[in-house]
TrEMBL record:
Residue numbers binding Mg(2+): D68, D377
Organism expressing this protein natively: Populus euphratica
Keywords from the UniProt entry: Hydrolase, Magnesium, Metal-binding
Molecular function terms, GO-annotated: 5'-nucleotidase activity; metal ion binding
Cofactor note: Binds 1 Mg(2+) ion per subunit.
Cofactor(s) recorded in Swiss-Prot or TrEMBL: Mg(2+)
SUPFAM superfamilies cross-referenced by the UniProt entry: HAD-like (SSF56784)
Positions of GMP binding: D70
Keyword Metal-binding: yes
Protein name: 5'-nucleotidase domain-containing protein 4 isoform X3
Lineage top rank: taxon: Eukaryota
Active site feature: D68, D70
Amino acid sequence: MSYKMDKGQKAVLGDQRLSSELMESRDGVQEPCIWSSPEGGKDEAELGKRIFCNRSLNMRNIIAVGFDMDYTLAQYKPETFEKLAYEGTIEKLVSNLGYPEELLGWTFNWKYMVRGLVVDKKRGNILKMDRHKYVKVAYHGFRELTKEEKVGTYGNTLIRDAFDEPDYALIDTLFSLAEAYLFSQLVDFMDKNPGRVPARVDYARMYKDVRSAVDMCHRDGTLKQMVAKDPIKYINEDKSIVPLLKMLRDSRRATFLVTNSLWDYTNIVMNFLCESRTLDACNFDWLQYFDVVITGSGKPGFFHEESNANLFEVEPESGKLINTDNGTPMAQVGNSSPSITLKKQNERCRVFQGGTVRHLHKLLSIESSSHVLYVGDHIYGDILRSKKVLGWRTMLVVPELEAEVKLLWELRDSRKALQLMRSDRDHIEDQIHRLRWSLDFEDLKADQKQEKSALVEDLELFNGFFEQLQRDQVRIKHQQAQRECHQKFHKVWGQLMKTGYQNSRFAHQVERFACLYTSQVSNLSLYSPNKYYRPGEDFMPHEFNILPM
């Protein structure tokens, strides 16, 4: 079944494929946006596994493909992993930072927060903004702010707020969802129990305490120890990862891994992903799928070539760090020769810790950064820096996208109805405007003026109320329908890629910095390794306007 909206905003249903629809481009010019039906009669579920293209990318020009690990190759289960992070953070707040013990009885709703939100640290608010940084949805704790409160707080200044650090924090990674939810709980708790939190703690200090507690959990290894003991409880299995890596290597491309996790944890996770091995059966077979592995990379600082971070080689068996000179083994003090040798053909790849992108380019003999494709999940830590600073080609992994794209498909008829209601609403407004314009500004003769004046009186007396009533009915019906549609994506925050008719701030970042984006890294295996990705060959979730708010 096809669906098309022409310039007159009339919906046309057909029996074949979904055809192009007029959407607003980045320059405000109407351009066709293609929504094609699943290729070759494939199940509609595969819509969620497509790769979407913002900028042309010819894979024949790519000589090296790199990956982040956490939330890219390794997709964590939010219902268990984020819950673990949430509980660990609360324990640190109570035991280390003096928060009341009753927090230990709190529970975590892992579905409540979404990526792309902004934390207002000073006011205790969580915000969702559009691409122009207008606040469209706002909550203080778990209380929704009224339109008047939003305008009074965020829309009543002569200078536009940048909504950046230090007063704001971006929820731009799935790791941040638990701490954002906990912050909202603490805001509610402090408002209702002002004397129960530590002395001199305001909203901003409370957020800082949450961040400190999260960092404590990472430093003492609480989270990673639990994951290492039972990885299947916390990480989704993906049998497509090894075939994907083999496909890339068979196409004569180098593959590399750059992760902020240290070697011990990286080895455990990659054993589980590539060989389904657990802690007591780990080995190093998975290294055969990579040319270089860099752990403890310290992204996003890793992407700055001027950084002076040292590169150490990791001895896989012991985890021992060995000094290198730009990746070349160095003789240790008291020895006349290096303790390790360079990788030979058919040997497993070398593992490093730290360093910078300059070291990586040398290790892989990369002469042009545009020949590198890097796949990650963090819009700032992985994608923005690698694209903006280096000029690497980028692919963003957005796990939430799979469900969102499927729902976009399912709601295509509801979207048509919403657009028709919007068209009716606009039509009534235009009729009223043209009538008033005619009465106020047309040059009429005396008898015409008298006749017109009488008509105006009649319209105001007999038609005015009816027109207002009709206009209000259309507006209310439209608002109710769009609210229902909004809640089908997320009951609180709505569609990930939209805020009203505008792209959300998250979608704007995706559009600016991700050459490609998709729901899972393994979706790459569904396409030829030599594919030429082009914009406009498919509908784009960040352009597809289904939900006005």
